[in-house]
Amino acid sequence: MSTPPAKKQTLVWVLLILLSLIWGSSFILIKRGLLALTPGAVGALRIVAAGSVLSPLAWRQRHKLHRRHWFWVFVVGFMGSFIPAFLFAVAETGLDSALAGVLNALTPLFAVVVGALFFSRRFTRSTILGLAIGFAGTLLLITAGGQGLLGNLNRYALYVIAATVCYGFNVNIIKYKLADLGAVALTAWSMLLVLPVAAGYLFFFTPFSQDVTGHPQGWAAFGYIVLLGIMSTAVAMTLFNKLVQLSSPVFASSVTYLIPVVAVIWGLLDHEVLVLRHYAGMAIVLLGVYITNR
Known about the structure:
mainly alpha
């Protein structure tokens, strides 16, 4: 039985707010994990935690997947979770968590670009204007030096931008290639398919075990990233995939309007320093996203 329009609209907004709170808190959790773990271990552990939690659900949902789904589910696992997990971990070795959260707001812009280039969506004048404004704000953010003065390009910001490109592909693939697949089955199987790769990398190519047991903050870092994997990947991706299917790729990506607010609050509470140029860049990015969504 289909969901009544009013209830569907309410559910869409509830999902949007929950995702904003969960994902907005993910950047400070990554920062905490990096106190003891390498970026590679943070990214891999995040996927292992999420995939492990979702494995039982994947088995129960196995009958919902058909041969036509497998390739795209695998792509979603890599583009929507695996690759961004590593990119964000590397980014936050040289970028404040608050700024990482703000740059994540580029996701709707890339959702539009990818949709236009690969999924036959249209570019409009407002889209082009919004993209130009959004990227101008991004340039301001990634070149802001100390005390807000114009400095050199922060290359760590490019990792976040690369992650948002992945997200742009992800939301369009979910909408146009996997619309008939339930959110739980999609999330569980996309994570399960990349779990072996992440586990192999974690245990054989990172000093994960030594760092957890030998570093003074090792177990705390482990807990932060496990929480990150369960909430920000397993739970949030299930909610996000459901949101995409109930709304549209661009609306679902608009969760990034609210993510920066939560991320900045966490950053300020953690004594990160943001100056006028940073706030100006944030405002310009969000203005560009707003115009693009229109």
